[in-house]
Amino acid sequence: MSAARLELVGLGAHGRVERVEVPEVEACVVGAGPGADLEWALPGLAARHLRLEREGERVVATDLGGGLRVNGRSVASSPVTHLDVLALGDARVVLLAHEGGAGALARRHGVCAAWLQPEPSGPRVSLAAGENACGRAAEAAVVVADPTASKRHARIVLGFDAVTVEDLGSANGTRVNGALVARARLFDGDRVAFGAASFRVGIEEGDREVTLPPPRPVAGLDPALLSAETTAFDPVVPPLPPERR
After folding, report:
1. What is the pLDDT of residues 58-109, one digit of tens each?
2. Residue 174's closest CA among 201, 145, 198?
3. CB–CB of 146/174 below 8 Å?
4. Count of CA atoms in the C-beta half-sphere (13 A) of 44
5. Quick check: helix, strand or coil at residue 242?
6. In what order do the strands lie in the sheet containing 163-167?
């Protein structure tokens, strides 16, 4: 990726989508004020916010004090690649790397496996990628054998980099760590309850090889992506090994 032409895309004044090209130098300081190699008057950007360094085949982003999250994870320094979302204080920018086109390979941090462990005991229920129906119905992916659960109680969606639960209008509600929710993100160790039936959430995360889509023109980038923590892309992901299914 060292020879890639890099661009940053963000929301400027009045909500307009702006893009700036990163100079092809070994290290570039990005910020809103004097002292930055790339000056960008982006709302929320500090005067000297971060440094982008090309290290062989990778690009590394380093926080210079303004605050940095990469795909929702707070970091001091992290490798970054095409379609990563960088939260720079209150600003959000998407990195575009113009190299390789369609089918470019990258390693992205994501969910490797997820499961529910019935409480107080019972066999672990593995979650499949995509939507997992939860309820008393026999065809549900997660069968909840409890009279307080509805037949179509909730659904759990296992995405590439997040696991979420959504109540489907159940009679007795869905709770996460005791709080009634309509929709919520799940994390490793959480407790999710369908009616009176409680499960412990297990999530294994790690780096996975994916195939990323090519850069898109500014007009093709939904401004809503620039207020999110991760880019809504559809990677081509190799199947998980049998032991992780």
Report:
1. 889 999 999 998 887 889 999 888 778 888 888 888 888 776 444 555 666 7
2. 198
3. no
4. 17
5. helix
6. 142-143, 130-135, 154-158, 163-167, 183-186
Report the C-alpha gap between 80 and 100 in whole angstroms: 16
Residue 238 DSSP symbol: P
Q: Which two tokens stand for residue 197?
A: 């039936």
What residue type is 129 in one-letter code? Answer: A
User: What residue has token string 């993100």?
Assistant: 185
CA distance 239 to 228: 27
Tell me which amino acid residue 144 is.
V
Q: What is the pTM of this model?
A: 0.55
For the segment 33-58, what is each residue's pLDDT rounded down to a tens digit?
A: 888 999 998 888 999 999 999 887 78
Q: What angle do CA 103, 227, 52 make, to 5 degrees?
A: 60
